[in-house]
Model the fold of this input.
Amino acid sequence: MSFQTIINNSTNITINNMPITGAVMSRSQRLKTASRGPAIYTFEVNVARAFEWSGANRGMLKVLKTKKNTTEEEIKLSATTGMGYIMGYAGTVANSELAKFDIFSFTGSTMVIDINAATISAADTIFDVGDYIQPANSRYTYQVKQAVLGSEIVAGQFTLQLNRNVLPSSSDGFVNIVGQALNVANNCTFHVKCLKMPTHTLMPGKLFTFDGSFQFVEVIL
Done:
């Protein structure tokens, strides 16, 4: 029973990607805040359904328990039917045209994207607020902070404002992501560990249920 199995059988998922900040109140009652790190994705996942206490589930339950916060897995939030809306693309550009994009440059939380002769009209919404993107060779996923229209393309390029600074990734050898294509929406993934694992209860009828929620936390290397 992998982390993805839990995601696929979830009843509800709470997503938190607020940046880590510190705050202090001065003697003059002035509030001062400072960033303490990148916005890390945390997923609180509830699974209300019962599972059959079969050989497969019984054995895999023990495997799941051994993973806890020591094992990293790659997950998708929308890997099953009916869940595609969670990371759904809200723009109007065809997938075949999005596939032509690559990263021209980046700095901080800004990316410049080269459209590479993709067919886009001025009225198109290339990305809407909240759309997910992921450099093809990176382990990290980002969300768009500001909508981008086709009318904003200049010399075959447009700028993306992201929810956090671009992170170096071991999957790209800690080299930059220039020239890489983009995974968009449901093609984006997260690398997580399970910080909180609920206990389980056995029920009549050879069934078991989980007694609380799972908490999956994105691993930043």
